Amino acid sequence: MSLVRRRARIAAGLAMLLAVPAAPAQTPRNEPIEPLPTSVQLDAARVALGERLFGDSRLSASGQMSCAGCHRLDRAGADGRERSATNSGAPDQINTPTIFNVGFLYRFTWRGAFSSLAEQAASVIANPRHMASTPQAAVARISEDLGYRQGFAQAYPGQGLTPTTLLDALVNYERSLITPNARFDRWLRGEDAALDARELRGYEKFKRFGCIACHQGQMIGGNVFARFGIFTPGPAQRSAAPSGADLGRFMVTGREEDRFVYRVPSLRNVAETAPYLHDGSIARLKDVIDEMAEHQLGRALELEDVDDIHAFLQTLTGEFDGAMVSRR
Q1: Looking at the DSSP assignment, which residues form a beta bridge with residue 324?
Q2: Please, are residues 139 and 148 in contact by the beta-carbon 8 Å criterion?
Q3: Mind giving me the DSSP string for 129-149?
Q4: Counting Cβ atoms within 10 Å, is residue 119 exposed (0-12), middle (13-18) or buried (19+)?
Q5: 120 three-class SS
Q6: Using the 8-state DSSP alphabet, how is residue 93 labeled?
Q7: Burial group, residue 278, by CB count within 10 angstroms (0-12, 13-18, 19+)
Q8: What CATH number belongs to 3-37+180-324?
Q9: For residue 12, what pLDDT is reported?
Q10: pLDDT class of 143 with cuts at 50, 70, 90
């Protein structure tokens, strides 16, 4: 298949851009991937309230579930499970995406169901399989806490603790969870020694083979939808009875063209966020590289190619709280 036809097939698999991003940051490299900022400007008091809420199980009706239970900062912002846990203890249908760098995304969840973090947070609180509550009920429970009442009165003058300010505090905290200074970011900023020869070779193959068509920009993904199975059918397409989770964005829009379409995940910290795919069905990063090459690019990669791209992906791990992100 010619390179022109291959690129056309890849482009056809991209359903739509999620938003029009700001102009790319100018770096010495002028690459299609941009470094993360090293800091973000947020209200410290609101971030502190959001951090407390993030770990507070009183947001859930059972008093047993918190945001931090699924998005563990000591597990690269995810939970390390194939699929997230429900409030019954049974696995859900979807793998938990990392919370790190979520503030740089335009759409949220694997299906891209929400256009704001506040909407996404409210949906988790209301989800009967998860917190099974409402922001209003959560406010009623935590309003008995003097620390919350005083904190919200100070951070939100004239408003205090309300469903809206509760969600806003959570969003402020989530936006603070950035992982800058990945070795690849340092290389983008001009630090030649940040990458070795194999890692650079892996990046060149990442671009040349077409991975960059979906995984680019500041988040190295996350800004487009794509069908899983452009060149060859993915597992869900081969299934006689795919689950609602497997149907992807179709469950949001109801449009046939959105069957098996998902928000492309960010590759930041990807070496630490196993297992992979929307259903957590692949445990090893090298296996994902092979799978994506086959289904999305129509390529059968040589072992050396997989090793080189794998080496490059290791350089996308950033720092959080003064240490490298890891699945400790």
Answers
A1: 319
A2: no
A3: TTT---HHHHHHHHTT-HHHH
A4: middle
A5: helix
A6: S
A7: buried
A8: 1.10.760.10
A9: 43
A10: very high
List where CATH 1.10.760.10 sits in the chain. 3-37+180-324, 44-176
Report how many helices (DSSP H) and strands (DSSP E) the chain contains, helices first. Answer: 13, 5
Tokens linked to 9: 């097939």
Q: CA 210 → CA 43, 95, 124, 204, 309, distances in Å? A: 40, 25, 35, 10, 12
Cα of 229 vs its chain's centroid, Å: 20
Which class in CATH covers the domain with range 44-176? mainly alpha
Q: With bands split at pLDDT 50, 70 and 90, how would you rate the model's confidence at 20?
A: very low
DSSP-derived secondary structure letter, 72: B
pTM reported for the whole predicted model = 0.90
Which residue is listed with tokens 């759409």?
Answer: 107
**Whole-number pLDDT of residue 115:** 95
| Residues 92-119 pLDDT 10s | 889 999 999 999 999 999 999 999 999 9
Q: Provide the 8-state DSSP code for 294.
A: I
Report the percent of the chain where pLDDT is more than 90. 80
Two tokens at 175? 């936006």
Residues paired with residue 225 on neighbouring β-strands, in sequence order = 263
Mean pLDDT of all residues in the chain? 91
Say how far apart CA 163 and CA 311 lie, in whole Å: 45
Which residues neighbour 52 within 8 Å (Cβ) at sequence distance 6 or greater? 148, 151
